[in-house]
Amino acid sequence: MKHTIEQAVPVRPSERYIILDALRGFALLGICLANFPEFSLYNFLDAQTAETMSTFGIDRVVRFIQYILVDGKFYTIFSLLFGIGFSIIISNAMRKGADGFRIFYRRMSVLIVIGLIHLMLIWSGDILMLYALLGLLLPLFRNVSDKALLMWAGFFLFLPVIIDFLWEVTGVYPSATVVRWQQYFCAEYGITDENFAYWLRDARDYGDVFEFLVQGALVRLQEFIDGSRYFKVFGLFLIGFYIGRKRMYAGLSERKSQLKKMFAYGMLIGLPLSVVYAWSAMFHHPLGLTMHSFLYFISVYLLGFAYVCGLCLLFVCLPKLRIFSILAAPGRMALTNYIGQSVIGMFLFYGIGMGYGAGIGLALTELIVLGVFLFQIIFSYVWLKFFRFGPLEWVWRMLTYGKWFALRL
């Protein structure tokens, strides 16, 4: 029998697992907490300016807490979910007699375009392009054994520690060329150290914003290189693929003891080491780059996994708890809400919008995040009362499957 991509359809609402959607919603909140300090331009302020703010004391406390509880933990969850999603797409497509890998490659190709638009036209902190490009490599591991899959995941997750050690010893940084290009475009547009933090707030029109986004895309590339983000993300993809292959999300009650054990280890080890990691980050790596990278490796992933296990345990014990349906609504529209957070950030903080950027502290920024996420919960809940998919999810599905899908319920 000849299989065609037209035979496949996306996962129906009845086939969804609410715990996966709830985890996506929870990750969206954390990602918003991590990203909005950059949208508000607080991250761009020099130390002297930040110290003049009336909220400086509480902002320092919030920054420390952010390093402990937020930094790296929520993209960890999103990356795991991406790997799980890959396994679901393949199994769903194969079960229905379709070429699952063609569907996956088309899905990733569309996501690359969406990520590129987001990166170059909306926000230079995009993660979608990296996810999509790395996602193209996932099928290479489809026939790898469970044990080998976890070994490869561990290798990719630990590799950044080795790379940071080599960089620290040799003093050679691969991102040097990217930095030179970024400096070139800054000079071309007149972006300087003095106006960098205020450029977007003072933007007179979208042209000014676009100029900042051009150099910002290069800053993002530098971040990926310096932080070896591609290895970290791909390692998490493989763990997520393993979880999806074993369908762990479908039998959580049977894995209650495992979840308890992983949650306990994650909290007892990951949380204290996250405090040490936060101290290292706040004081610019006093123990050296390699030790800072090792602290990241141990603390961030363990605490991120603990978050996942904790939410799953709560679901096993109290599956009807209202919080799961609340988080699942934005989680079902994760792409729309992720891009939506960027649009809201532009509107609130840039000169082409309300222009509040570079004028508020970190604590107030994170309070605004709670308001933004509450809005997204309400919007998602109301939208899904009338429509099958989020607006961007709908477009993504149609471009992936090459067919029209009814949007209204």
Helix/strand/pairing category: mainly alpha
Taken in chain order, the helices and strands follow as HHHHHHHHHHHHHHHH
Q: What is the total number of structural domains?
A: 1
Strand content: under 5%
User: If you average the pLDDT, what whole number results?
Assistant: 93
Number of helices: 16
> What kind of assembly state do the chains in view correspond to?
single chain
Q: What does the secondary structure layout of this molecule look like, with pairings?
A:
Blueprint: H1 18-39, H2 47-51, H3 56-69, H4 73-95, H5 100-122, H6 128-135, H7 146-170, H8 176-189, H9 206-226, H10 229-245, H11 256-282, H12 289-317, H13 322-332, H14 334-349, H15 362-386, H16 391-401
Description:
- With 409 residues, the chain is mainly α.
- The protein has one domain.
- It is built from 16 helices and no strands.
- It has helices spanning 18-39, 47-51, 56-69, 73-95, 100-122, 128-135, 146-170, 176-189, 206-226, 229-245, 256-282, 289-317, 322-332, 334-349, 362-386, 391-401.
- Helix 1 crosses helix 4 (73-95), helix 1 (18-39) crosses helix 13 (322-332) and helix 5 (100-122) runs antiparallel to helix 6.
List its traits.
409 residues, mainly alpha, 0% strand, globular, disordered N terminus
Q: How would you summarize this macromolecular structure in one to three sentences?
A:
With 409 residues, the protein is mainly α. The chain has helices at 18-39, 47-51, 56-69, 73-95, 100-122, 128-135, 146-170, 176-189, 206-226, 229-245, 256-282, 289-317, 322-332, 334-349, 362-386, 391-401.
